[in-house]
Structures are given as structure tokens and as C-alpha cells.
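Predict the 3D structure for this chain.
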Amino acid sequence: MKNLLKEQMFDDFEVSGVDITTFTKFSITCDINDKYLSSDEKEILDKRSLVTWSEIKDVLYHIIKGNRVPTKFKIIFVLPKDRTRQLVEKNQLPVKEDGVHGLFININFEDGLLKCTTGTSLKVFTLDKILENYWDDTVKKFFKKHGIAL
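Done. Predicted structure below.
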């Protein structure tokens, strides 16, 4: 929980959605509302459609804080498009960056058990699992680098 809410481990990730259940269920879609933003703010976002973890984690901290742990929560992290492109190009993976819809880290907590799964979403059909396997390995290394045992 500390790595999620107090550290910067996930700050650069975009967030697709968050569900937190405390005394009630909070569901946040994490889509950026363009109508709320000034033209300067829109320019800074550079066509990004999702909030980053650093932009939303303080709000979530205020929902979660207290003496009791939420009964459950789910967070869907998305690797930003520029980092997805770097990952694909740098490692010469057999899929083109524009064929990748998203690379995800799903964090679920329920019944006292924390689970983390990865996901890939492609815009094209393929039986090739190289990107999937590479993303799994990348996430494992990311957790190890941050001292999280798997």
C-alpha cells in the first residue's frame, strides 16, 4: 500500500480505472474531461486521454486513509504510449507500436489478498505471444527493482 500511495513507483503510469470499496464503492473511470480544462492545460496534456497515477493518487489516499483497510480495490495501470513505443522499438519486438492498444498492470486486493496481473491489448490479431511474455518479464523486473517480492 505504501508503494502505491506514498512512493513514486507508479507515478508515470496512466490509470484506466479505479474501484475502491470502503463504506461504499467508489468507481473512477480516469478519463480526462477536456471540457473542464483550459486551453493551456490541454496543451500540457499533449492529447493524453487518461490521468496519471501522480495526478490521482492523493484523491485516492483521502478515500482510503483511516484505521481500516478497504475491503477491496482494483487499479488498472496503463504504460504511456511513448514508453510503449520505446519498449517495442528498443527491443525489436515483432509487433508495431501502432498495433498496440495498451500494456496494463492490474492490481486487485480482496479478502486480504493482493494480486497483480499483466495484460496486453492489441489492435491486430496475432498468435504471437512475444510481446505478452516480454511485458510480463518487464513488470517482474520493475517490481524487483522496487523491492517487491513476487
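The chain has a mean pLDDT of 90.
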